[in-house]
Give the backbone structure.
Amino acid sequence: MITVRAETVADCAAVAALHIESWRAAYAGIVPDQVLAALDVEQRTRERAERLGNPDSPFTNLIALDAGEPVGWVCFGPYREEGRRLDGKLAHQVGEILALYVRSDRWGTGVADRLVEAALAGLPQPEVRLWALTENVRALRFYARHGLHPDGTHSTFRPRGSDVDIPELRCALVREVR
């Protein structure tokens, strides 16, 4: 049975490992191989612990557990604008799903559905946005099933340690004001 709860510092290593495994599976052929190979669990664990330890962070990190083992993760909060900085003007109107990753052996099992539903429930804003790599067709189909469709805005994503700009699309869902 899948349960969803807040991520804790004690979860960081397991979540970092599943994040990297998911990246390598989802982005093979999209993100340069050397970037995927260089991903480091220890570094990601430290970064996650630092972010989770920041009491001023406006972002929520939830994990999906199966038999107590983390199998997925989602991060959400107020929308980040240009340069991916928080935009105070939009914070009350637009929320963002910053990341959603599930272990590849759990794709298609409903874990991601539970996480995106939890994120949408946790975002009070009438509009929710997210960015997805243009070539990540599987993710775009998944988000569309949850009402998040490309809104015509394009950008590029440059992975850390790379000089390659990868096309991405912004997806959005506009809901009735609660």
Q: What stands out?
A: Residues 50 and 60 are 14 Å apart (CA to CA). The first strand starts at residue 2 and ends at 6. The chain has one domain: 2-127.
